[in-house]
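Lab notebook, bench 4. The sequencing result for the construct came back, and we need a structural model before the next group meeting so we can plan mutations. Quick request posted to the team channel:

Model the 3D structure of this chain.
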Amino acid sequence: MTVTSSIRLLNLGVVDSWQTQAIYHALAEMMTAESPDTIIICQPQSPYLYLGYHQIYENTFDRARCEQRNLPVFRRRVGGGAHI
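Done. Here's the predicted structure in token form:
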């Protein structure tokens, strides 16, 4: 028997930086065992940083430098570490 599974592609183009994380979180929260695997393609409109769920801001980023460079910092609600 051949089982065919579909993969959902969400090509969102350029989105606000905060929306990238909101999309990832919403998708992770809404998925069930029956949901198709999903690939998200998007590009943040401006640079940002994000922290992993358990990371401590001061141990990961220099707050003054982030503010000086006007880089927003978001916290992920799903696993993984910091990324630029």
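The CA atoms of residues 51 and 82 lie 4 Å apart.
Will bring this to the meeting.
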